[in-house]
Amino acid sequence: MLAAAFMFGILDGLIKLMGPSFRIWDIAFYRWGIGLVLIVIIFGWQGRLLKTQNLKLMITRSISGCLAFLSLTAAIRNIPLSTAMVLFFSFPAFAALFSRLIFGERISKREIFCICAALGGVAVILDFKLAGNLFGYIMGLSAGVFAGLTVNLIKRLREKDGPVAIYFYFCMLGALVSFPAYIANPRIPASGLDWLMAGGIAVSSVLAQLLMNQGFRYCRSWEGGIFLTGEMVFTAILGIVFLGELVSRRFWVGGLLILASTVLLNIFKAKIKLSYRA
Length: 278
Prior knowledge:
Blueprint: H1 2-17, H2 24-43, H3 55-78, H4 81-88, H5 91-102, H6 109-126, H7 134-157, H8 163-184, H9 192-215, H10 221-228, H11 230-243, H12 249-277
């Protein structure tokens, strides 16, 4: 899950480096379209990409993932980026809620503390501010809700389906959704560097999604959500190292909160396992 968060951080950095001429639909199509081609080339020989034990749930997961991405995009365009990201990274809390409703999982007070600490760390790093219109806030919160639902659906799918099939359906639906808007006014990379970044977006997205899908086989949905908040720390580190961004006090405080929450969560899980063995 931490490896997935790191790859999502690389994806964020590449999206930031793409020129302003590239629309969100262009980036979305590169992510899903090229990702779909890569999955077919690498894994298509197995002949199992379309095989799933629960087609309805697979389609529902793909739809919720696309809605999360589109909702976040709408939020970014209507409210400050930092506020939109904080609202989006509320998804571990919604993942915990859905895990209770879908799986009937119990969440202890200590685990709730870990969730709050991780969300607090994200808010500190991004300097949460109230500005913009109500629609943007609704979209930002909706992105968190859909993302929380998505990780629970992935968790359920991983009981019988592999990580490649889950991502294949997601890319296929995402490519179908983004293609009409992309083809209406396409932005084609004009230089080798643009093509390299477009390919990097697809490759990092594929690796991040496959790692995340695989990770949900070993942890609960909301636990995976907490680990994925590390994306903000990795993104900030990449910005510091490669873009020369200044290190702020908020980064250290927020990063430590996120790190502490993941460490405590693992300690609590280890104690629970030891008590079971005893």
